[in-house]
Amino acid sequence: MPRQGPVTRSVAAGHSNAFGDRGRQADCYADASYARGKQAFGAATGKRGSDGDPKVAEVGAGSKKNRFAFVDITNKGRAPQRQAGNKDGSRNEQHLIPAKHHSLQQDLQADLQSRQAQAELDHSPNASSPASLQMAEPIWKDIDDPNCSNLMDCCDYVDSIMQTLFVSERQKRPSTAYMETLQRDIQPNMRAILMDWIVEVAAEYKLVSDTLFLAASYVDRYLSCRAIDRTELQLVGVAALFLAAKYEEIYPPQLNDFVFVAASTYTREQILEMESNMLDALGFQLTAPTPKLFFRRFLRAAAADLPRSQIAHLSALGSYFLELAMVEYASLSFLPSQQAAAAVLLALYTLQRQPWTPTLAHYTGYMPADLKPCARLLHSLFLMAPMSHWPAVREKYAQPSLLGVSTIPAPHILPDTLFFCL
User: Fold this and answer.
1) Pairing state between β 67-68 and 78-81
2) What does the pLDDT look like over 93-127, one tens digit per residue?
3) How many CB atoms lie within 10 A of CB 35?
4) Count of structural domains, the chain
5) 133-158 as b/e, with b when 16 or more CB fall inside 10 Å?
6) Beta pairing partners, 96
7) What is the pLDDT of residue 132?
8) Are strands 95-98 and 78-81 parallel, antiparallel or unpaired?
9) Which of 137, 123, 72, 209 is closest to 359 using CA atoms?
10) Where is the segment annotated Disordered (predicted)?
11) 312 in the same domain as 211
């Protein structure tokens, strides 16, 4: 089969010196006028605080925001005050009582004392400093912009979507031992040959990676409940890829294309019959969480702490690990989310970046120790890829469009400290 080329995140308040002494004097007069008005209105309402100063009355209690009523400045320092009523209920006449005058010197002294007290508070050890405020912030970073204009990011629903995927991956998980318990005529290496061929076909027709992983999911779920003969194994792969392409692709390959790629081993009728059998076995549940779905989300969490120049390498290298795992039957022992998180961990370590962050722990739900078995499996596949009998994945990721990540040397070992790095 010919192989196609690459598949395709405090301002200090103060007065300006621009107006000089006149500006400051105007401010003082304004403060004095405000104080006189406040006291005059307090005298009018008859309300005083605990310190004897008149209180400003609140109005509009039923509104969302309390508003304050101030004395009319046209009273020129005089405000009406109502005397106590007579015992017979009759009203007394109103008398205008002169408001207390504050000297300009008193206003200046009060303002100076207020500024000194604020300065002492700002320099006290218990004052909130930028460093203490920074420490109070969450240690993980929010990767979802509520103002994002890209509807495909689904920022309003992404948390609910991810919660659903975490539940669904367990419900739609294939058997981890169907080769030993159900299948009698096929072996793990036969499955590897089939997956290697599916990778080649997907590259030939430039199918998106979601189609590839979804087809692999259909194959494993079908083989988990239906025993087949080895002569039908490729037919299962053809039907799975046909279904996945129709589900994911805008322009999926036609039925005749799949007859052709199978070298006419199966007829159109056989492919359609297997497609019907597969739909029945899957219960028409075609939506399934795949490692690629989780990887996209986890990659975004990792990118929050990465320079932009390394995000593309991390994406390509992590995808390479996931496709190596897809070919390996033993990878079924791990959930899709575990595979995706372990791929991010191993890719970060390979690129000599911090392998795990609080942001990754928050969004993946995994700590490095939880990923140790899966990460070691991916690492062994990475090490053995150059000698593998199934080269489709390695050759695909050697292409320049995928940054040639399959040619990156694999780390010789994964130290135990890697899994306790957070």
Assistant:
1) unpaired
2) 444 444 444 455 565 566 556 656 655 554 444 44
3) 18
4) 3
5) eeeeeeebeebeeeeeeeeeeebeee
6) 80
7) 40
8) antiparallel
9) 137
10) 1-23, 42-61, 103-132
11) no
Q: Token digits for 36? A: 């006189």
321 in the same domain as 219: no
Place of tokens 């309003």: 156
Give the helix/strand (H/E) hosting 113: helix 104-122
How many residues can be counted in the chain?
Answer: 422
Q: pLDDT tens-digit profile of 377-406?
A: 999 999 999 999 999 999 999 999 999 999
Task: Specify whether 395 is located in the same domain as 340.
Answer: yes
CA distance 281 to 273: 12
Q: Give me the domain span that covers residue 37.
A: 18-81+96-108
Question: Residue 106's pLDDT is what?
Answer: 61
303 and 277 inside one domain: no
In a domain, 150, yes or no: no
Task: Tell me whether residue 300 is exposed, middle or buried, using C-beta atoms within 10 angstroms of its C-beta: 0 to 12, 13 to 18, 19 or more.
Answer: middle
Q: 């009273």: which residue's tokens?
A: 75
Statement to judge: residues 238 and 333 lie in one domain:
no
Residues 262 and 381 in one domain: no
For residue 421, the one-letter residue type is C
Q: Which residues of the chain have pLDDT under 50?
A: 1-102, 122-137
CB 101 within 8 A of CB 119: no
Residue 305: inside a domain, yes or no? yes
